[in-house]
Amino acid sequence: MALLEVKDLGIVFGGLQAVSRLNLTIEKGHLYGLIGPNGAGKTTVFNMLTGVYRPTEGSIMLDGENIAGQRPAHICQKGIARTFQNIRLFQDLTVLDNVKVGLHNQMRYNMWSGILRLPAYRAGERRMNERAMELLRIFDLDGEAALKASSLPYGKQRKLEIARALATSPKLLLLDEPAAGMNPNETAELMNTIKAVRERFGIAILLIEHDMSFVMGICEQITVLDYGRVIAAGTGEEIRQNPKVIAAYLGGD
User: Fold this and answer.
1) CA 200, CA 208: separation in Å to the nearest integer?
2) Of residues 172, 169, 188, 186, the one with CA closest to residue 99
3) Separation of alpha carbons 209 and 141, rounded Å
4) What are the backbone angles phi and psi of residue 103, rounded to the nearest 5°?
5) How far apart are CA 77 and CA 89, in angstroms?
6) Mean pLDDT of 80-85
7) Which value, to the nearest 10 degrees, does the dihedral of the CA atoms of residues 181, 19, 4, 102 take?
8) Of 48, 112, 136, 141, which has the maximum CB count within 10 A?
9) Quick check: 133 and 196 in contact, CB under 8 A?
10) What's the pLDDT band for 113 if we cut at 50, 70, 90?
11) Residue 117: which pLDDT band, with cuts at 50, 70 and 90?
12) Closest-CA residue to 174 (of 162, 160, 190, 188)
């Protein structure tokens, strides 16, 4: 069974068909790309997969369960985490606390334990601190654990957002333009980090990205959207030579 199987997924906004009959299959531990021109519907797909938008048609099967239209918190608990095109960190919290926010669904103490600082609370907080620091070390952010997230340079904020998403222990990680705004050195470093994350955690990754060298260099399979419809799917080499993809990006018949 595939980890994620999307069948005939679609959504309509006020009579506008933003995404139509999307079919997508993601296997466990694989790395996929979702590309297309601006306005093609890529982030809309992410919003449907994570429950931000309720699809008007189709199904989203995660490990055999249809999660289409379920609440974002429930979908996160089921195993899908994401980052955003525009970084959405808690800027006034520390780097460590940002990652601990992602661990909220793994707390094992109740409200009264927290209020009264009972042993269960202290043990739970200790485990969360250890887990958060472990994730920060993977991204070389452990030295900045006590700093405010707002004080980090742009590239490290991107890494922190990925670390926070990983804290939820996802089966599938969605990355929305992770290399946006990065210089070539930061992009190359991020590419290696994403590969290392996939290998270390054994999770599937689906990413949206406009940097074609990034996508071609990291993704095993790529799906191309244009005006909300899939126009091509295949390996990087197949996508690079596909005339429909070339026309969508460069114009022409």
Assistant:
1) 21
2) 169
3) 24
4) -90, 5
5) 20
6) 93
7) 40
8) 48
9) no
10) confident
11) confident
12) 162
